Structure formats: structure tokens, C-alpha cells
Amino acid sequence: MLIASSVGQEGIDLQTYCRHVVHYDLEWDPAKLEQREGRVDRHGRLASGPVNVYFLLCRGTYDERMFHVMVNRFRWHQILLANRPSLERSP
After folding, report:
1. Is the pLDDT confidence value at 5 over 80?
2. Which among 60, 56, 59 is positioned nearest to 26, based on CA atoms?
3. Residue 8's pLDDT is what?
4. Considering only CA atoms, which of 40, 39, 67 is closest in space to residue 55?
5. Do 70 and 30 touch, CB atoms closer than 8 A?
6. DSSP string covering the chain, please?
7. Cβ contacts of residue 25 below 8 Å, gap of 6+?
8. CB atoms within 10 A of CB 31
9. pLDDT tens, 19-68?
């Protein structure tokens, strides 16, 4: 298990054997969460199965509200950027 601050979301290659990402703190920018998940979900991954992503939230808290806002931003990013050929992902 690795526990790191937001500093650990860049520059660390964890794709070899990791399968789980736990977001214990949230960011307002969905791209930053995707950057964290990208530490595990990369080319050269040897772990079998999908990457599992977890969020630690308590119902009725500020974090839960922040999570819903962040999810809506992520959805808008997908809608707004989906038609831009330079940003499409290859299969």
C-alpha cells in the first residue's frame, strides 16, 4: 500500500503490480484525479484484472458534495471534448 500526498500523483510509475487506487482526498479538477489513476493504468502493466478506483466518502459531508461536483465536471469535460479529434483516445 502506498499513501502519498498530491505530490505523488506525478512522476511515480506504479503500473507494474498495482491494481487499486484509493482517493483519500479529493481535487476539484477531475484531470488531477485521472493523473493519479494514470500512475497505475499505464503501458507495461503486469497486474491482472482491471484497475479498481475507490473514493473514501462519508454521506452528507462536504467531501460527498465535492465528489458530486467533480463528477459533473468530469462528465462535462467528456461531452465538450469528445468531438475534438486531437484529444480522442485510440482503442
Report:
1. no
2. 56
3. 66
4. 67
5. yes
6. -----GGGGSS---TTT--EEEESS--S-HHHHHHHHHTTSSTT--S-SPPEEEE---TTSHHHHHHHHHHHHHHHHHHHHTT-GGGPPP-
7. 6
8. 10
9. 888 887 777 777 787 888 888 887 778 777 888 888 888 899 888 888 88
